[in-house]
Design goal:
By secondary structure, the chain is α/β, with parallel strands linked by helices. It has one domain: Aldolase class I (TIM Barrel, Alpha-Beta Barrel), CATH 3.20.20.70. It is 40% helix and 16% strand. Helix 7 runs parallel beside helix 8.
Length: 401
């Protein structure tokens, strides 16, 4: 049974009812449970549990240190391309958005990666929109192979593929695959994804299983908060994570809880997910799945990120750029402007070209980041809080033995 089949059988409405109506007694029982179930998680997400947030946070802190120690793994995203054939109403890269687009050449990707390596990064996430013409499997394989000597740990966040298409990427040196379901609410998902292959909810939901079969040793999943009710999303995300921990046990698993940020298209969140709810969701996930890695991105502001570190976080991005060429300016000479998926105007000489939307000569980013601190400042803050920033957590030579 794949997770899609299990997902369709989940009593989601019943769990959502618990998440809204759990009593203080039920919350106390969930907190005391040594092996909590999905119903207990729902209770920990309830308004009643919000009244015990300090106790929840303390337990989450204890479990995280027990299972992971006092370390935070640092990574950076490296955007390869903002070309995309999907229309996703919440995404800056959405096909119909009139933005400046570019796909980096292999040499430009190497240039970006070396800039990140110079900052200390040894864990890099390669990100790209879904576009078979610009971001083919062979292009991704060439990128990974070109970076293998510079970057020990390479993960991917790209359009879903078949197992057989993932295998050359693993063989080239990619160790991780990230795929966010965006929303686990089928109706909302259909409304948000109006055209393109991403419309296939089930295909996307089964992606981590195909990636595990292909040999990726790290898997990452998540929901994009602000599209549907946050309690419902967290329950579904937790169920998905629990399934993968049981069935894809050869891979380490992380989850992320990114919140919507301003981007091209000016999409506004459909639901509220405030800071207090974010804390509650992180802590509840930690109590439900103590061995689960939890990722925190630069979507969140610096002060909040610092406060969240002790509450269950195991991995953080730092110094992020969400546009191709963001670290070195690579690719700017090849910028082009698209509208409704069509190239309207070629950049030519970017230094002399004024794009229709503004006077920028940089590729458009996927979204605005909130924590703009340089990586060294983030690392210093982690150390000041009593944690160890980890830039590199393994060697290929160690794995070979």
């Amino acid at each position: 049974m794949s997770f899609v089949e299990q997902f369709d059988q989940l009593p989601i409405n019943a769990h959502c009812g618990t998440a809204q109506e759990a009593s203080e007694t039920e919350v106390a029982a969930a907190l005391a449970r040594r092996d909590p179930g999905l119903g207990d998680l729902a209770a920990l997400l309830s308004p009643a549990a919000a009244g015990q947030l300090e106790r929840l946070a303390k337990r989450s802190n204890q479990l995280t240190q027990q299972r992971f120690g006092r370390v935070i793994r640092l990574f950076a995203p490296l955007y390869l391309s903002n070309e995309c054939i999907n229309n996703c109403t919440y995404c800056g890269f959405s096909r119909d958005n009139p933005i400046l687009r570019v796909t980096l050449s292999i040499d430009e990707v190497v240039r970006e990666a070396r800039a990140l390596a110079d900052q200390g990064f040894r864990n890099i996430l390669l990100v790209a929109g879904e576009h078979p013409k610009f971001v083919s499997g062979s292009y991704m394989t060439d990128c990974v192979a070109a970076l293998r000597e510079t970057v020990p740990s390479i993960s991917l966040e790209v359009g879903p593929m078949e197992t057989g298409e993932y295998q050359p990427l693993v063989q080239a040196g990619a160790e991780g695959l990230i795929v966010y379901q965006e929303t686990y609410h089928r109706e909302v998902y259909a409304n948000m994804h109006t055209s393109g292959p991403k419309r296939n909810f089930n295909w996307r939901l089964e992606t981590p299983e195909r990636a595990h079969e292909a040999g990726f040793r790290r898997l990452g999943i998540g929901a994009l908060y602000g599209l549907s009710d946050w309690r419902r999303e967290t329950i579904c995300l937790a169920a998905h994570a629990q399934y993968l921990l049981r069935h894809c046990w050869k891979s380490q698993l992380t989850v992320s809880l990114p919140r919507l940020r301003p981007c091209a298209g000016e999409f506004e969140p459909l639901t509220n997910f405030d800071d207090r709810a974010l804390v509650q969701a992180i802590c509840a996930l930690r109590l439900f799945l103590p061995d689960l890695g939890i990722v925190l991105s630069t979507r969140e502001p610096a002060a909040l990120r610092d406060r969240l570190i002790p509450l269950g976080i195991t991995s953080m991005s730092a110094g992020s750029h969400t546009e191709p060429g963001g670290y070195t300016g690579a690719g700017n000479e090849n910028l082009h402007y698209t509208e409704r998926g069509n190239i309207r105007e070629l950049a030519g000489n970017a230094s002399e070209w004024t794009p229709p939307a503004d006077r920028s000569t940089n590729a458009t980013g996927q979204f605005d980041i909130a924590d703009e601190r340089p990586p060294e400042t983030v690392a210093e803050t982690i150390s000041r809080l009593g944690y160890e920033p980890v830039w590199k957590d393994w060697d290929a030579a160690i794995l070979a033995n």
